[in-house]
Amino acid sequence: MKIAFLEDNQHFADETIHALSAAGHEVKHFLTGRDCLKAVTSDTFDLCLFDWEVPDMSGPEVLASLKLRSAVPPVIFLTGHDAEEDIVQMMEAGADDYIVKPPSTNILNARINALYRRAHPAKNPIESVDYGHLKVDFTKRKFMINLEAVKLTEKETELALYFFGHIDVLLSRAHLTKVVWGTTPDIDTRTIDVHVSHLRNKLNLLPQYGWRLISVYHQGYRLERLT
Amino acid sequence: MKRFRFNDYLSTAAILLFLVVFIQLTGLLSRVDNVLFDIGQKWRQGKPPADIVIVAIDENSLSQLGRWPWSRQVHADLIQRLKQENTLAIGLDIIFSEPEQSNKNADNALATAIAQAQNVVLPILLETTRVKGQLIETLPLPSLALQAADLGRVHAVLDEDGIARSIYLFEGIGAPVWQHFSQAVLNVATHQPSQNQFNAPAAQKNIFSLIRKQQKRVSFRGPPGYFSTISYAQVLKGEFEKDTFKNKIVLIGATASGMNDLLSTPVSGLSQPMAGVEFHANVLDSMRNNRLIDTLPTVSCLIVLIALALLPLIWMPRLSALKGLISTLVYFVFVSMLAAVLPKIFSIWIPPSAALLPILISYPIWSWRKLEAAQRYLDQELTYLKSFIVQSDFADNTVHHYDNFDDRIEQVRAAGQQLRFLQNDRKEVLAFISHDLRAPLASAMMLLEEHQQLKSKLHAPLSQALHLAEDFLQASRAEMSNSADFKELDFAGVTHQAVDDAYESALKKNITLEREIVDGLVWVNGNFGLLQRAILNLVMNAIKFAPEHSKVRVKLSYANQQAVLSVVDYGPGIPMDEQKHLFKRFSRLKDMSASAEGAGLGLYFVHTVAQKHHGTVDVESDIGQKTSFNLRLPVINFQAH
Questions:
Q1: Same domain, A113 and A137
Q2: Beta-carbon neighbour count of residue A26 at 10 Å?
Q3: Residues 6 or more apart from A126 whose CB is under 8 A from it?
Q4: Which of A174, B2, B459, B615 measures 20 to 30 Å from A116, CA to CA?
């Protein structure tokens, strides 16, 4: 995968490039926002990994300029700021996800792969996946725990299938609402929380089964697969 | 501050008390009292009494019968005429002090008429012969006085403003022997014996001075012309309807303006004074209805006035400035009106001016006391602020002598600005720790991964430093969070997530994390990140102190609009004396090794978050058994699955 990497700290950058290269990615590193912007508009990248703060332009500024000019590949921000208002600002700027520094190699790879899968869906959609205790059948829209079908409502099924189709991807509340409830206007802000709470319960989405279904500062959700 | 307020109370009360006593004893505002009394008297009650008739020596009578004085034969004719009408009593308010020179028979005729009528009351006058001369009692001619049914003293007390409001029931020279003229007429009308007290003890010192007792205010029935009146000349000619005088009290007196028998009264305007005879009609009516007005005695009066003046202190301190002012004004009007109508309703007069002025200025006085207190407080606070804000940081252009309020406000403003500046400083420092300190520490940790030799030595101190930076950052985020930014969120979901976060750490120590989380959604108003972190701190704390292969229980229950999150570990426990310090900043357990991670801010963070969410956190510990941390939060509502 070809990754554009904006980071002003050379030490930190070296570590990250090392980890990404080890995972088989091709990394182009930029020290300034200006260089990065020039490269991303002229060349094609599969993914952008931006530091939130670089000396000449901030990460969000780079992203905003990019969005004005061309189609932008998925963007992940690397940041030392993990306060709620920072994350909200990041998501509003159009970031697909964020990773708090220092990233563990596992998380870095998981998030990058998740976004890549999302941007490049397989030509033949997956029919079903067996996670051991839990089987997900995408075609029949069924969930089985220990060979027993789990009873889910229509919307719960819809939401669960979307989560399992986007493992490790940060899904904003607005996006989930649009995908699952579609045109239904003004659905209660509580609705998503209620459905997520049900899914966690009914599908046993707990660490001991290798899952974490988390809310990101109440802004979005992410179903994480623990390894 | 409580003590200050009590002092303000006392000083305000003392000032008001002094004013009441001073005004009351000096009579400084008696004119205000008179005005209020007069307002009350203007309140008219019902129709004029039908059984009192005034026979008026008016202008019409003068023009028909000639100029005053008339021959006593005329009066004799009138009395004779009235006798035929069966009157109850006749009050003849005309002085007959000297014999009639021109017609000696006239006096005899009048005496005979009075004797035959049997119900005629004659007046006594107390007068000075000349200015500053001796006071003498002027009785009617003995021949007339002997025939009169009773005698009474005609007078009205003129107040300093020249208005007649009261009478004395008894007066006399040397001894108060004479009853009032109206009393005499009433006695005759009701067949009561005379109340003239000829055996009253005489004054010891000056037997020539006027002695008077029992001053009463008159309850006026109506303005001049209120009582039914008939002209003297008409009566004499028989020009009246039958039964005009039957069983009635008749008062005969002068009303013509040229005859100098006119009084200003509370009910008469300046241009329309009341005739003496009509004043007596009012007195008579007051007397027989027991409506003569007593003035409250001095001591009782003072007590009532002090109570009235201090009453606003009960509510004034509780109200805002404008409401306090308005309520005081309303109360002022209320007390004024109450004092004005009391004589009419309960025949009691409480001169209110000694309370009214203090009531009116009670609000300014209270404000002044409060302002003084505020000033004192400002000065104290300024001194305190200056002591801990470094002097050189303080703007130098501020005035150093506290001359007035503006200076103080300016100083406090400067101090506030300085504090805001310091707070911004603090935020910047925090931002620095968050980004510029945390990031390089993090890179160092990453670098260590490749150097196994160094890692074993440096990992512990580096990760401790990273934790420290992290804890500082989180604690200050909790402190600076604003409940206005809180959102509705599912506390059960937050709890699940925090337990998920702790899963790996528990696994490393072979600790079982037991979830006992209520089945449903627990909606609270809060900050997601802070709450998640608070629960995580409690759970990680429990894992840290729990022995390997034990369990940590996370229980979330809901009851009575309150969520209770309990994190229980079966570790060594926390001694009682250390429990109370637990939630303070930089608190660490005594037996914790110095190398233990964190700055002792973990539980302080939980405590701060609990407070910001209007909740509480406490700890229960059985030494050697188990420890339970309980976080309680107010809940919007619970939604079962």
A1: no
A2: 11
A3: A138
A4: A174
**Residue in B473, B80, B403, B106 with CA at minimum distance from that of residue B245:** B80
Cross-chain CB nearest to B496 (options A15, A81, A200): A200
Report d(CA A64, CA A114) in Å as an integer.
23
Q: Exposure string (b/e) for B419-434, b if CB count within 10 Å is 16 or more?
A: eeeeeeeeeeebeebb
- Residues of chain B in contact with residue A101, where contact means CB-CB under 8 angstroms, are 438-439, 442
DSSP letter, residue B317:
G
Cα separation, B300 vs B82, in Å, equals 48
* CATH number of the domain bearing residue A43: 3.40.50.2300
Q: How far is B442 from chain A (nearest CA, A)?
A: 5
Q: How many CA atoms lie within 13 A of B523 on its CB side?
A: 13
The two tokens of residue B566 are 């309990």
Chain A residue with the nearest C-alpha to that of B441? A102
CA dihedral A80, A82, A85, A90 (to 10 degrees): 70
Residue B305, Cα to own-chain centre: how many angstroms? 13
Residue type, B112: T
A20 lies within 8 A of chain B by CB: no
Each residue's pLDDT tens digit, B238-265:
887 877 788 888 898 888 877 777 888 8
Closest CA to B487 of B436, B523, B451, B445: B523
Residue A93: which of A47, A45, A119, A58 has the closest Cα? A58
**Nearest-by-CA chain B residue for A197:** B493
pLDDT digit string, tens, across residues B545-572: 899 999 999 999 998 899 999 999 998 9
* More confident position, B593 or A88: A88
CATH architecture observed for domain B481-640: 2-Layer Sandwich (3.30)
Reference B335, options B355, B315, B316, B318; nearest CA is B355
* φ and ψ at residue B223, rounded to 5 degrees: -70, 170
Contact criterion met (CB < 8 Å) for B503 and A208:
yes
User: Nearest 5 degrees, angle CA B529-CA B533-CA B537?
Assistant: 175
Q: What is the mean pLDDT of residues A188-215?
A: 91
Where do the domains of chain B lie?
2-39+295-354, 42-290, 481-640
Q: CA A61, CA A94: separation in Å to the nearest integer?
A: 11
- Cα–Cα distance for residue pair A128/A134, rounded to 1 Å: 11
Q: Which residue has tokens 């009582």?
A: B227
| Residues of chain A with C-beta less than 8 angstroms from the C-beta of B477 | 83
Size of interface A-B (CB pairs under 8 A): 78
Name residue A48's beta-bridge partners: A4, A75
Is residue B610 over pLDDT 90? Answer: yes
Q: Is A202 on the interface with B (CB under 8 A)?
A: no
Structural tokens at position B27 = 């009579």
Domain with residue A146: its CATH number is 1.10.10.10
The 10s digit of each residue's pLDDT in A38-72 is 888 888 899 999 988 777 887 788 888 888 776 78
Q: Do B380 and B4 meet the contact criterion of CB atoms below 8 Å apart?
A: no
One-letter amino acid at B423 equals Q
**Domain that residue A90 falls in:** 2-119
Q: How many structural domains is chain A composed of?
A: 2
- Ranked by mean pLDDT, which of B13-22, B469-478, B584-593, B623-632 comes out on top? B623-632
* Contact yes or no for A107/A86 (Cβ under 8 A): no
Q: Does A107 touch chain B (CB under 8 A)?
A: no
Residue of A nearest to B512 (CA): A208
CA atoms within 13 A on the CB side of A213: 22
pLDDT for the residue B131: 63
pLDDT at position B31 is 85
A94 touching B (Cβ < 8 Å): no
Neighbouring C-beta atoms of residue B558, cutoff 10 Å: 18
Structure tokens at B250: 């008749």
Identity of the residue numbered B466:
L
